[in-house]
Design brief:
Structural class: mainly alpha
Number of helices: 5
Radius of gyration: 27 Å
Helix content: 55-70%
Order of helices and strands: HHHHH
Low-confidence stretches: 156-160
């Protein structure tokens, strides 16, 4: 009678990387919300590290036989949380149109729903197209974080006046027929 290979433990390197990616999600959001060039670069670095863990955890799990039920569920959740939180935050800040975020998130929710629906039959492996989509999406979000550093932060405190405020300019003194300088002849 064949014996099934032992299941890997829950605490393995691949799962630790997945949990670390989940921990980095609020870090990325907090850095983006902090505003300023330094914090956007920090968000870019945190997002980059989290994206690299996405690449590594799957490779490590497959190469070392560390595939667990937890990893099958937590990995796609961590991916969607990182991408979704970054997109929603950038849209909230006005850096990215909301419709872009809505389209990407709708697609991600649909694909993840499909994967969870069929998980009882087995895991749907990511296709080359899916991997390319993820790579391009990560590159786009990362570069967008950096590109925004050149724009003025809409939430930053500046010394410019509120354009809605009514300002009165002093007009040059008008010469009226009364001989009093500074009095407007139209009054």
């Amino acid at each position: 009678m064949p014996v099934a290979p032992p299941q890997p433990g829950l605490m393995n390197l691949a799962n630790v990387l997945t949990v670390f990616r989940l921990v980095l999600v609020p870090v990325v959001v907090a850095c983006l919300l902090a505003g300023g060039t330094f914090w956007r670069i920090a968000a870019f670095i945190a997002f980059g590290i989290a994206s690299v863990t996405d690449l590594l955890d799957g490779r490590i799990a497959r190469s070392r036989g560390l595939i667990t039920d937890f990893g099958k569920i937590a990995d796609p959740i961590a991916d969607k949380a990182l991408t979704g939180a970054s997109l929603v935050t950038m849209s909230y800040l006005g850096w990215l149109p909301w419709w872009v975020t809505a389209v990407i998130l709708a697609r991600e929710v649909a694909v993840t729903g499909l994967r969870f629906w069929v998980i009882r039959y087995g895991v749907i492996a990511a296709s080359r197209g899916g991997k390319l989509k993820t790579l391009l999406q990560v590159l786009a979000i990362s570069l967008y974080m950096l590109a925004v550093t050149r724009r003025r932060d809409p939430r930053a405190v500046t010394r410019r006046r509120d354009p809605r405020a009514v300002t009165r300019r002093r007009s040059p003194p008008a010469v009226s027929g009364t001989g009093t300088p500074g009095r407007d002849a139209t009054r």
